[in-house]
Amino acid sequence: MRLIPSLALLAALGAAAGWWLTAPKPLPAALTAGLTGDVAKGEQVFWAAGCASCHMAPGATGDAQLLLTGGQRFASDFGTFLAPNISTDPTHGIGGWSLAQFADAVMCGVSPEGQHYYPAFPYAAFGKMQVQDVADLKAFMDTLPADATPSLPHEIGFPFNIRRSLGGWKLLFLHEDWVIDGELTEQETRGRYLAEAMAHCGECHTPRNLLGGLQLSRWLAGAPNPDGKGTIPNITPAKLDWSAPDIASYLTTGFTPEFDSVGGHMAHVVENFARLPESEAAAVAAYLKRVPAAE
């Protein structure tokens, strides 16, 4: 009988520790204090990060892609995620967010209300971005039009709808280190920054475990398509044997060395890279040639 109070105390302490460990953790305020964003540089970040590709309305083309009304559906093993409105609308979008709130969302997956975002939003990659790039991104996005379309709720069932549990997911799978380390050239280092952080290539091209964490030992080795239709290709040298110039050309034109054309969501990636300096695609190509081959 004397054990009961002790066990209850241990359980309470364990619950308190778990609650503390899974709490959303925003960036230190000092990281964004005093930063000013550059709109022109932010536009480059916007396209490199593929913001419109996920947050434009379904089927949007041309200038309509800059109306970040949300609504696209992304199927997964955990349910279907719906991209939210991230336009400048102050009620239904992110208009009025401070830079600190914006950076917390992008780099930490923490909402202004202090809740975890689902990692369908690739903050696991964006967390490696430079804070100045995030400030530049916000400066550009603040110039985009507002849209009052309400965000639709995710279609996620129990237990995945318990957002607090994402704190545990972050403890397990958020990593500050680069996947590809060692001595890299300046071009390869830039390519790593684009591929591992800003353009978040690994989020689609790397297989995941049962909890949805990236299997870093099989980095960029390809993965099942989350919607159940086909696979996302292996882009390590084990399968992607194109030359670096051929890879760079594909990223900006959408044509393979065999003159096949890009399809699916990758078409958006090509559209985005075509808006960037050619040196960016060349940097990603140089990086991919340094990635270890993985079957």
pLDDT averaged over residues? 92
What is the N-to-C order of secondary-structure elements (H for helix, E for strand)? Answer: HHHEEHHHHHHEEHHH
Widest β-sheet, arrangement of strands: 1-2
Which regions contain 5 or more consecutive residues with pLDDT less than 50? none
Strand content: under 5%
Portion of residues within helices: 25-40%
Sheet with most strands: 2 strands, antiparallel
Roughly how many Å is the radius of gyration?
20 Å
Commentary on this structure:
With 295 residues, the protein is mainly alpha-helical. The chain has two domains: 26-173; 186-288, Cytochrome Bc1 Complex, Chain D, domain 2 (Orthogonal Bundle), CATH 1.10.760. It is 39% helix and 4% strand. The protein contains twelve helices and four strands; from the N terminus they run αααββααααααββααα. The chain has helices at 3-21, 39-49, 51-55, 99-108, 123-126, 131-141, 166-173, 186-198, 202-205, 244-253, 266-274, 278-288; strands at 73-76, 79-82, 223-224, 231-232. The strands form two sheets. It has a two-stranded antiparallel sheet. It has a two-stranded antiparallel sheet with strand order 3-4. Strand 3 and strand 4 (231-232) form a beta hairpin. Helix 10 crosses helix 12. The chain is globular. The N and C termini lie far apart (57 Å). The mean pLDDT is 92. One of its GO terms (molecular function) is electron transfer activity.
Which features characterize this protein?
295 residues, mainly alpha, Cytochrome Bc1 Complex, Chain D, domain 2, 2 domains, two-stranded antiparallel ribbon, 39% helix, heme, Cytochrome c, Cyt_c-like_dom, metal-binding
